[in-house]
Structure formats: C-alpha cells, structure tokens
Specification:
Number of helices: 5
Structural class: alpha/beta
Order of helices and strands: HEEHHEHEEEEHEE
Distance between the termini: 12 Å
Shape: globular
Helix content: 25-40%
Low-confidence stretches: none
Number of strands: 9
Mean pLDDT: 96
Length: about 170
C-alpha cells in the first residue's frame, strides 16, 4: 500500500480554506496503484458471501465497481437526489461542509443480500452513516463498511455503528 499512498496527492485549501484534500484520482489513473487497490479490497471480502457492493457518489463508484467485479457481486450506486431513474428512498445528513442528501433505488437490496458499503475516504463519517441507514432500512443479512483512506485524525470511525466491521486500506 506504500506505492498507492505515494500516488495520492494532497490538494491544499480544497474544497475550502484550511482543508488538505486527499485526492485519490492520481492513484486511480495509475494502473499499478489501481490494480493494488482492487486486489487489496477483494482480499478483505473474499469468502464472506458478499452479494452487493454499494458505492457512494462519486469516487466510491470506482473502488466499489472494481470490488463488485472481483467478488462476482452486483454493484449498487448511492447518488445525489434526482440522479436515479426509478423509485428511490433518501437520507439527509450533515457533513464537514454543510448538509446533503443521498438516494438509492428502493429495490436495490433485499433480505438475502450481504453488502459492502464502499467510499473512497472516511472523514467525519456523515455520508457513510447516511448510506448505512438507507441500506439498513432494506434489512440485508449483513453489512460491511469499507474505505480506501481513513483520515483518522477526524475521528470518523467513532460516528459509525460499533457492531459493523469497518475496514480501510490506508490511514493518515
């Protein structure tokens, strides 16, 4: 993971002054780093019976789709309002820079599913917690939570459910 970490760029004062943004697009564009990310994500969930990977808009779509493919699982997008074409359920939440809402198709998950919720970065955990509440309301068998990067100094893990396995590939 050291190679992947070297590929991640810091963007100062984005999206607002005082923030050092961990930009994973520089790792995603590197074929070796992308392959390592996919391999390591898959290693975490092989043999756990995962049937669906839920990726959170938008960078969570990248790792989430790769993980779904490697696990022979389906991929479910969680998107901003108005982006999904069929009947949806939604959840509003507070994040580092204000409030937001996310949606998922009402029929995306069923009671037989074992789900990995995936996003690129764990900051304060607001987005992931909203996604968790959405997916939990569909009563899947089990839910796992995963990130590529955990910004540990922001304490986001403390805001996630204690009874859910939370993993990340890289910690800062």
């Amino acid at each position: 993971m050291d190679y992947v970490k070297e590929c991640i760029r810091d963007v100062i004062d984005f999206p607002q002054k005082g923030v050092v943004f961990k930009d994973l697009t520089t790792a995603f564009k590197d074929a070796r780093a992308l392959r390592v990310i996919g391999d390591r994500l898959a290693d975490l969930y092989k043999g756990k019976g995962v049937t669906k990977v839920v990726g959170i808009e938008s960078r969570g779509f990248i790792g989430g789709a790769i993980l779904a493919d490697r696990l022979d699982a389906g991929f479910v997008p969680v998107r901003k309002p108005g982006k999904l074409p069929a009947d949806t359920i939604s959840e509003s939440y507070t994040k580092e820079y204000g409030t937001d809402t996310i949606e998922v198709h009402r029929d995306a998950i069923n009671e037989d599913d074992v789900v990995v919720l995936h996003d690129d970065v764990l900051a304060t955990g607001g987005t992931m917690m909203a996604a968790y509440r959405l997916i939990k309301s569909m009563n899947p068998k089990k839910i796992y939570i995963n990130f590529i990067v955990d910004l540990t100094m922001l304490g986001g893990r403390a805001n996630l459910p204690a009874d859910v396995e939370v993993t990340s590939l890289i910690e800062y």
